[in-house]
Amino acid sequence: MAGDAKTMNLRLHVWRQTSVKDEGRFEEYAAKGVSPGMSFLEMLDVVNEELITTGKQPLAFDHDCREGICGACGVMINGNAHGPQGATTTCQLHMRSFSDGDELWIEPWRARAFPVLRDLMVDRSAFDRIIAAGGYASVRTGSARDANEILIPKQNADSAMDAAACIGCAACVAACPNASAALFTAAKVTHLAELPQGQPERMRRVVRMVDQMDIEGFGHCTNHRECEAACPKQISVAVIAQMNRDYLRAKLIAPADNENAGSGG
Amino acid sequence: MELKSNAPTGPIETRWDRHRFGMKLVNPANKRKYKVIVVGTGLAGASAAATLAELGYNVDAFCYQDSPRRAHSIAAQGGINAAKNYQNDGDSIYRLFYDTVKGGDFRARESNVYRLAQISVQIIDQCVAQGVPFAREYSGLLDNRSFGGSQVSRTFYARGQTGQQLLLGAYQALEKMIDAGGVKMFPRREMLDLIVVDGRARGIVTRNMVDGTMEIHMADAVCLATGGYGNVFYLSTNAKGCNVTASWRAHRRGALFANPCYTQIHPTCIPVHGDYQSKLTLMSESLRNDGRVWVPKNKDDVGKKPGSIPEEDRDYYLERMYPSFGNLAPRDISSRGAKTVCDEGRGVGPGGLGVYLDFADAIKRVGKAKIAERYGNLFEMYEQITAENPYEVPMRIYPAVHYTMGGLWVDYNLQSTIPGLFVLGEANFSDHGANRLGASALMQGLADGYFVIPATIGNYLASEGGGKLYEKRPGVDHAEAIKVRDEVSARLDKLLHSKKPTRTPASFHRELGKLLWDNCGMGRTAKRLEAALARIPALRQEFWDTILVPGTGEELNQTLEHAGRVADFLEFAELLCKDALHREESCGGHFREEHQVEEGPEKGEAQRNDELFQYVAAWEWKGADAPQVLHKEALDFEHVKPSQRSYK
Amino acid sequence: MPRVLLLHQTSLGKKAIVAVTGVVMFGFLTGHMLGNLQVFRGPEALNHYAALLKATAPLLWGTRIVVLTSVIAHIYFSMMLAAQSGDARPTPYAKRENNTANLASMSMRLSGPTLGLFIVYHLLHLTLGFSPTGVHSETDVYANVMSSFSIWWLAAIYIVAQLMLGLHLFHGAWSFFQTLGLNHPRYNALRRYFAAGITLLIVGGNILIPSVILSGYRTQAQLDAETPAAPADDAPVEARNIVVE
After folding, report:
1. What residue spans of B598-646 are helical by DSSP H?
2. How many folded domains does chain A comprise?
3. ipTM for the whole complex
4. Overall domain count for chain B
5. Closest to B141 (Cβ–Cβ): which among A1, A144, A151?
6. pLDDT tens digits, B136-172
7. In a domain, A265, yes or no
8. Residue C86 and residue B265: Cα distance in Å, rounded?
9. Is B331 a catalytic residue?
10. Contact predicate B279/B409, CB 8 Å
């Protein structure tokens, strides 16, 4: 494999925190003999194996599919969400992005809405609650009409898919200077707003989801576009404009029963 | 024990309808009195939980991930089959049924498969209504592609992320019901045992993975939708967290485990590249629509740059061996083809474990732009991992464990041998026989969750216990529940305090995986299986003696979680090998080298033995010190007559 | 209650208010800049323009009220939003790298307050007449301007403030499209050009005034208008000579 021959040594500064209540601190570790073909998480695995065999607690981090789709993994690496490479989740980041002797600062996502559970793991259940507030198109199982009765222009289907590609990793919040969840929320709003199936609940949805986003304690969007740069699925901030437009429509123009539908969450 | 499949008889087209009509219904006003536990929130679990709650049942749903949206169904790339015949290319429910039975190498129940094919049509309607952004044509109609050895275009897809989009649809429906109060969601919970009271599944013991609390949850029925056991091989395309624990614990409590030896090896994965490797990455099978698979004809050429090997020195072995299906031959066949040429020393890349998947011809034919449109994200992913550009050099691929057809035995109602324990999706054994066709896993998961279980669980609840199961629901302080919980705690304690704590769970997992891959992988022989069976108990003993888990059980402890899963894999692996050893035939994902066609054009192909093995092998746990007992459910094929699967 | 008055309850509503008030100020700035450029047409033109504004009370006070309300709302809601964002990340990152955030976007919370202070100063200086020159005429706006901007440090304050305004506008004029949901894939790229263009225009126009006056350059109109009058006491003679040449 290209470039696998040489190995490197790295210095890691990793955030350690035993529980939500613990204050947390950085600790330093050496990652030795790292192969460029390793994924970032495999590098952490190697560090962890060594920690465990010396009786120490390994670094806790969320991960699951390790192919960039489940959205479980994600850490801040030298100030970049999911590391220095664009359009990549932490599990898909490979060590060839780094060089021998590099010093890496590895931190959990930081936001009030995402309490740190341990080391690099955070609680992202706020995202689930935002979806629960309205991120769906209601359909009773078994009651749907034939799929091809709903014609959807390819362009709409494609832009819905662009937005729906969100994996809920929360890199957008992590990268945002304001810890805003606008990109995540807007991606779901836009996915459903682009499709005819999403229309009936469109106004209610955007109001409720935005309300929930506020309740969770996220910051607000000031259009730095850091979220877009960090997003492993390259979701565009155009979705945020879409959400804002829908929101203002719902608040100012849409029939009144939609207006307060979200109050109380 | 007699295995009653409860599968209806009579005309196959109306079996499901007649069966449904024959089932008892729960009075709408009574539904809210029942509580149902759903473990796992993949396609099967999330769709079941959402639908059951929508019907009015109280649902407690559990997943080990931090959010139900992350279950591994999300990683399915290619698509979902449905007999819509939108392309008018000759598809029908019967054809999908036929293809699935044949693709499963005649080891599945006809009734189940027919129902699956019927429901496939409704699934697409349901998912489109939910807003799943399936690919469309310019006309606005749904697009289809041909997939995984099928000669009709019946696969619906959403770019390379079909599983993700279907799961998000089910997840959103689930979140809606969570908001409405119908579902109580318990994320970051791992089911560590099943509670059986008076012969009925009544609850589960879970560990809160954040703070280590042991919890008891009681209900009127339990649904396991906990996925497959592919991670017993350590390296697989499964997510790191996928495990057999829930199924295995249920097995130990009395649920029969069926056909564990049916494991699917997916032909198009990125080859292993180092010892540190933690998982294998699948490249969608759809790549085989345009990519051509080859290896050098001569062993001496394997080290050469692929571009420098002239056309006449390349062996497009799938096209050569299977002229009518070529590169689209089914998964088991393609995988074995790769193994064969690599065994001959013609494999490429590190360790000679790889074959080329070449897009040069396709790029020449339709242009780079078109290829990028079809597979752009996959090519990027490949380059990300290997640092090689597949537009310029052929991809290297190798088979990897991907899916497991075996699972807990269930009847037509998806009920296991423990009354009240239902098993859905990949966790059950039911619909794919010995081999699953591409784009059928998503179909089965959603069929089970959206359409089958809501009907059959009602029948169970309405007919058991005089229709008043809820009145007799044991509390969390029931003696049996406490006993099970204490057993689980004791087991965790053992993991935390072994005699000579020196080896990590990962090191055991890796060793077990390699043992199974070498001896119970793509090609199996009695000799190697016996060797594995001899080694596993020793490895298990070593595990319990030397397992090293730092920290305590009362905190977030990922090493402890892993250790618990490996412990169950070490028990399960033995059953897997035992089943493989007992099945003296080759069928689907189970290939016994002793049983190949010896003569004629099909030489080297899998040789089934219908006379002796046309049955489901369901194993009963008899205690840790006694061997499991085999029960057989005979399979009848009234409609699709068993034949040699030929893809020549 | 009219729904628009309930907007401020949520973050998106607050943002919309900030955006709309920003647009109002932005419109005002454009007019203000164009009006002030009258200075290059000589004292008569500028003073006449000023007198006209003052004579049209509804226009003057209407504008003042709208602008003042906008300024106050803009500042108030920006501060609330900033506080919300401050709360949203109690523990900062030890290391942090920006990829797309630029000087303009990152300095909004610096350029904003700076501009606020500057506006106060600007009002004190040229509207209320607390001029560092010690001379202020209610009617001769031209003289006020000319005398002030001949002082290098006073001109410098204005120029620096305009650069701050440039930063604020460059991000704000792009940002409000996003915040108000004005986007379309075909025209999205134009929004940046628009923001850059309009910023250059307003800031350029505004900077022109102090910098040209400080440099001593006079347009023909100014010279024509100034010839009969006595030259400003402190204007250096040689500076004029250079220009006349």
Report:
1. 610-613
2. 2
3. 0.96
4. 2
5. A151
6. 999 999 999 888 768 899 999 998 899 999 999 999 9
7. no
8. 51
9. yes
10. no
